[in-house]
Design brief:
The protein has two domains: 71 residues, no CATH class; 91 residues, no CATH class. It has a five-stranded mixed beta sheet. The protein is of the alpha+beta class and 213 residues long. The chain is elongated. The relative contact order is 0.16. The protein is built from nine helices and five strands; from the N terminus they run αααααββαβαβαβα. Helices cover 52% and strands 12% of the residues.
């Protein structure tokens, strides 16, 4: 229940309820359920505008979930947000993170699992290899699965990058395991991370709540 709902049931002020529950820790799923409850919309708006307003309000509320997490100041949360800001692909609907460092990738996935209840069945892993990796493809795929501690059915099709003779000479063995991409298709998590980043950085990016920018 929200603070407002508790206050109505008990017949007390929202400020009183806020003080009573300030030490209650909610899971990400619980915060998301609260965030999904939108206020009543103007009945004069047409259906498409209602849906657009409803969706925008939901994204903003998920950003507030992220801001609340950021205010806790926990190192893993801060590290995960900074990794995403620097190495993540800025999609509005998917969390995508690509890197060649297995420890960095594992830390990022631990961040998602810890703060957003991300289970294995919504994680997708893909390997990006160079031409000299082809003979070791299965070994490399197993390496990443083990490093991230995800089951084999979460592995997508690997991509092999073909390059010129000159670049092949320069790149051989530079990245012995290529790179790995982690994908979690949850818009709510993208918005929560966006909210946390704004809170941590002390800036406002209203465009991050839009689906396209």
């Amino acid at each position: 229940m929200s603070i407002r709902e508790i206050a109505l049931v008990l017949g007390v002020s929202k400020n009183s309820v806020s003080r009573w529950v300030r030490d209650v820790e909610l899971s990400y799923a619980q915060r998301a359920r609260l965030a999904a409850r939108n206020p009543a919309l103007n009945p004069e708006l047409n259906g498409s505008r209602v849906r657009a307003r409803n969706a925008l309000q939901s994204r903003l509320l998920h950003q507030e979930v992220g801001r609340a997490l950021a205010r806790r100041g926990e190192p893993l949360l801060v590290a995960g947000c900074m990794l995403y800001w620097g190495e993540g692909t800025k999609s509005r609907n998917q969390v995508m993170f690509t890197n060649s460092d297995p420890d960095m990738a594992a830390l990022f996935l631990r961040f998602l699992r810890t703060y957003f209840d991300v289970a294995d069945d919504i994680v997708r892993v893909s390997c990006y290899l160079f031409a000299d990796h082809v003979e070791r493809q299965r070994e490399i795929e197993r390496f990443w699965l083990d490093a991230l501690d995800v089951p084999a059915d979460r592995l997508g099709k690997s991509v092999v990058n073909v390059y010129s003779k000159r670049s092949k000479r320069l790149r051989r063995n530079v990245l012995p395991y290529g790179t790995c991409r982690i994908v979690v298709s949850r818009q709510a998590i993208v918005q929560a991370i966006d909210g946390a980043l704004q809170e941590l950085g002390g800036f406002e990016r209203p465009e991050w709540a839009r689906l396209a920018w």
